[in-house]
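**Entry details**
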Amino acid sequence: MTFLAATVYENWPIIKQLAWLLGYVMRGIFWVLSQIGIVNIGACIIVFTIITRMMMYPLTVKQQKLTKLNAIMMPEIQALQKKYAGKNRDQQAMMKMQAEQQMIYDKYGASMTAGCLPTLIQFPILFALYPVIYNITKYVPAMATYDAARLYNFFGINLQEAPGFRLSVAILIPILAGVTQFISTKLMMANQPNMNDSPMGGSMKMMNYMMPVMSVVFCISLPAFLGVYWIMQSLVMVIQQLIVNKHMSRYSVEDLIKQNIEKKNKKRAKKGLPPLNDKATINAKKIQQANAASAKANLNKDERDAKIKESTQYYQNKSGGGSLASKANMVREYNEKHKK
């Protein structure tokens, strides 16, 4: 991506408005930092990233609440997908499926788009940030009075240049970008329901490894200032995710459903619609009880299989191919040993 490309898409709708807004935010950050003798774009990007990520913190909490609800909703959604399997070309069937899927989300007071919102917001910010940093003096005129080498020098790294594949200190930027992205993604998926057997689960697992690789590729080929932004974004997300995970551990699924339904009912009341019932809470309890019973049954089965394996091994070691009477004695000894 060149300066020419940056100047082209900085005039796109939404991106243009966001760029000027971010420019004013950057002006304020630069003014504050310059008052304490810090004249550096890298430092401005770090402060800027912390501010923007903190503004998005409520969306992160909302995203994780939906993730926790997915553990209960997913069986119903998968059953619905199975019901309409093979009907992808039937437009009427697909519309009916979407309507039924929306009913499932409504039942739990959830939203189909809540999980994607933070990501959708992040991309325009990233696109708008590029021209702001690349042509920083246009958006922060006060920087024009300072030497460019001083502005863009960040621990010996020229933030205007791409790290590339050269063996230099700049190569740490794409490496750190990949590592922090991986940690952030793993923490984000900590509350995800177990969907190993579903196509969605496989896709999510693949994304856990693809996103860090993409981060490395982007940060090698793009100017280093975007890499600094990427690293700081992931670091702030890691801290936020640790806080969110601890916060979410205090809430049961039933509490989340109750809160969501109460919010939904307030909105429905304003529209003159009847309130939602508490079937979702009852269903959540039933699913959790079923999961607990299934886990207990699997545990009992594992214990039983282990004992059978142990007795078989004991029998084989002791009998040594002897007579029937000696084998019977071995069985008796094993039973006495385990007080059977």
